Amino acid sequence: MENVKSFLIIGYGNQLRGDDGIGQEVARLVEEWKKPNVRSLSVHQLTPEIAEELTHFNYGIFVDASITGEVVEVSPLTPDDSETVVNFGHSINPRSLLSLAKTLYEYTPQAWLVAVPGDNFDLGDRLSPTGEQGVNEALTQIKMLIDTYSNTRQNEDSN
């Protein structure tokens, strides 16, 4: 029997600051795939409530714009065990959300950060050509992650 894994894609950033809206655009486009095992959240910023949401998924993929780098980078994430649960303030990041999920719910999904390069973070609601190219590459990388990890149990059982 196939054990399909579930994915939460969390795209975040400010859509009114040019390429800072890359994460939300990626999440919006992933939602259009209408895959039954994939849910996406498009948010302005990460909030503590997302920690609980993460506990319902096998995998979490965070998508954010990057002011450094020239290519889309996919990096594994682990909980930030140095974070205290009560001291988040405005500094919530993917690792601190994973830490919060681990502390409050004793579970964290396997997670990655997809950092997408951008070059225009000025006021405006349009992505630059660099940002648009990054969105397409990020979608390709996310699809590869989903395809690779969707049936990991089945693959492990057949070995």
TrEMBL record:
Cross-referenced InterPro entries: Pept_HybD-like_dom_sf, Peptidase_A31
Source organism superkingdom: Bacteria
Signal peptide span: none
This protein's name: Hydrogenase maturation protease
Organism: Limnospira platensis NIES-46
